[in-house]
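chain and backbone:
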Amino acid sequence: MIYNSIIHLYSSAVKVAALFNKKIALMRKGEEEAFRILEEKIVKGEKYLWFHAASLGEFEQGRPLIEEIRKHYPQYKVLQTFFSPSGYEVRKDYKGADIVCYLPIDTPRNARRFIELTQPYMAFFIKYEFWQNYLNELYRHHIPTYSVSSIFRQDQIFFRWYGKGYSKILHTFTHLFVQNNESVNLLRKLGVNQTSIVGDTRFDRVIEICRQAKELPLVEKFKGDSFTFIAGSSWSPDEEIFIPYFNSHPELKLIIAPHVIEESHIKEIIERITRKTVRYTQATEETIANADCLIIDCFGLLSSIYRYGEIAYIGGGFGVGIHNVLEAAVYGMPVIFGPNNRKFREAQGLLACDGGFEIRGQKDFNELVDRLIQNHDFLKESGKLADEFVRENAGALKKIMQTIGNKL
């Protein structure tokens, strides 16, 4: 009852917030249209595997599993749902799924309707997705349900005195594929024993992305023979640190792929830069060859762009939390990020192996990048350690398939 009351309050708050926030409005509209999409596209008699991810990052964790299943078990259809526009709007045309839509808000009525309509053969919830009504409905229908790449910490609601009731939903999972031993131990305290330590599927995913990386002639033309610094998923606090350094170092070229590509933010970046800048969507071979800074003002290129850099900076560490560090590390380059990285196991691993570096402000950043540029051996060794970290932690996909393969 408490959970459902919170969900209804949340729903009401979303309706109000949608009047003022474009992203929330997209989410609300998508949720409202989800059942129409499902009714139009669900093919009766087909077996659907349902994958749910909150956003783009979680989707990328589930994607290796989707593609491995489709390769070996083509008889199944795939339903992919999202919670956030940053996932759905980027991957709504994903060819690996037969149906892509938002997940309707987790009310008992929506959960019943969704399960009755889709009748999934299996369900996979990626990382932090624990929707009580959907999970209970799947359990009641005896549908095998898996948590993929999940990670648990002592401060989560499941392990607090007031989260005892909510923690019961963990028993609805057929199996939880977790990232580390701490997660297994915490779950065992709750009597949840259907677990395996498999690691993080993102390691498998970034290796595959690296293999399939696009050649980008304009970016290659921009780079030429220059030492190139790539800033991925940057926010304003990040840009306030690396742009001044770039402005005063003419030997360095800069590629910025900001997390937010709204026009106002792109203009803000351009105003901060004192050197010749070009936007990717407006670039020609002539303008890009003469530019010092390239701004990526579109989605879908960043994971391939890292191949053109010597150093990567990953944004979010001075705010919401760092974004995907592995996409850069897999190319054998040192990775720099801000201090909000404690909850990111992959970042902690890079720090531990000396393939990644935390900076807390302008002084730290300047000293570190100076050293990386001036000391070739340090640069090369840091990049090698980053690459080895990714390769050594791959293999989660194989372990998951060994468990679910005999049920497909």
